[in-house]
Write a structure and sequence with these properties.
Layout (H helix, E strand, L loop, with lengths): L4 E7 L6 H9 L6 E8 L5 H6 L6 E6 L4 H11 L4 E4 L5 E2 L3 H12 L3 E11 L5 E7 L5 E3 L9 H8 L4 E4 H6 L12 H12 L2 E14 L13 H18 L5 H22 L6 H13 L1 H6 L8 H11 L3 H11 L1
Parallel strand pairs: 1-2, 1-4, 2-3, 6-10
Antiparallel strand pairs: 4-9, 5-10, 6-7, 6-9, 8-10
Length: 331
């Protein structure tokens, strides 16, 4: 019997977490699945750990390192399930994720289903410090509606790939794949292309995925010299999505993601090792502050904290040197 769903799991240097990740897949109440483990040139013991699981549903594929997007595309080409799910190998899932999602997809004949997640914050020893649940507060959004309401939280939920299950032939027939060589915004670019091809977004108001936030060096927590350019690329696709789906308060949402992009990039500049001088960093901040999208949307940004208010004031006044100095002192 052919698997109803293909779970695609790229693996790269996750030996500390892969056991829990795979075990959470094997614990699914829906047993009819294939788990495609994509060895993306891992340098640690991850794949040897995977091989210890004696389950015929686990299929291991080896490839040269090409990054997350390339590994996902590699898996998608080899998937045989009616549906496909992209999971990160250092996170884990609730037992009923697959069953509940497939029930919804099948009963309503959908190409995509979106669900909530839990952000688990751990310390360096792997101890759970806190958790926060992120849920979609709506049941559906229709493209033809003239008044779709999306807040900052829902916009974030729409961005990820690991809190969605997709119909595989829908992705294949529309040639929707992850953009190879792009980091930071690969999920956003992928999903906004999905949203261009569908007419309705349906949600399950439950948290099935556990995204683990750890104080260690990861792909996201690494210095990216082109981080702002990547963020702009993602923001441009979000801007197009907001327009096509007739979302209210588009300027407010764009103000939020534009400022969040700048804050992320400033942290990227000062928190992670790089070869840029202080003057180079100041110039980078100047470039972000003077960017045309920043100037367009900064006045619509609604800060929620004192720090965010300070960022808005300094960006509005183009005080990029002061922003750089404060970031340096904070570090």
């Amino acid at each position: 019997m052919e698997s109803i769903i293909s779970i695609i799991l790229p693996v790269y240097n996750v030996e500390k977490y892969i056991t829990k990740s795979i075990q959470s897949v094997l614990n699914q109440t829906q047993k009819n699945f294939e788990l495609l483990v994509i060895n993306d040139g891992t340098k640690d013991n991850s794949i040897n750990i995977v091989r210890k699981f004696k389950d015929s549903r686990i299929k291991i594929f080896n490839k040269e390192n090409g990054g997350l997007s390339d590994a996902r595309n590699f898996g998608l080409k080899r998937a045989k399930g009616k549906y496909v799910y992209f999971m990160d190998s250092d996170d884990w899932i609730e037992p009923n994720l697959i069953e509940d999602c497939i029930d919804k997809l099948e009963s309503e004949k959908l190409n995509l289903i979106v669900f909530g997640y839990v952000q688990d914050n751990e310390n360096k020893e792997g101890e759970l410090l806190s958790s926060s649940i992120k849920l979609p507060e709506v049941s559906e959004i229709r493209k033809l509606s003239t008044k779709n309401v999306i807040d900052n939280s829902l916009l974030g939920i729409l961005g990820y790939a690991w809190n969605k299950v997709y119909r595989r032939d829908f992705l294949v027939s529309n040639n929707i794949v992850f953009e190879k060589g792009v980091s930071l915004v690969e999920d956003i670019l992928f999903n906004t292309r999905v949203y261009e091809k569908i007419e309705v977004l349906r949600f399950i108001n439950k948290p099935y995925y556990h995204y683990l936030n750890r104080p260690i060096k990861t792909l996201i927590k690494t210095f990216h010299k082109d981080s702002f350019q990547l963020k702009l690329k993602g923001n441009e696709m979000i801007e197009r999505f907001l327009m096509r789906w007739h979302v209210e308060s588009q300027d407010k949402l764009m103000g939020f993601i534009q400022v969040q992009a700048i804050i992320y990039c400033i942290n990227n500049l000062f928190s992670f090792r790089n070869n840029l001088s202080f003057l180079d960093k100041i110039e980078y901040i100047r470039m972000m502050v003077y960017n045309s999208k920043t100037r367009k949307y900064i006045r619509f940004y609604k800060p929620s904290t004192f720090v965010d208010t300070c960022y808005k004031v300094l960006i509005c006044l183009k005080c990029y040197r002061l922003i750089g100095l404060l970031a340096f002192l904070k570090k």
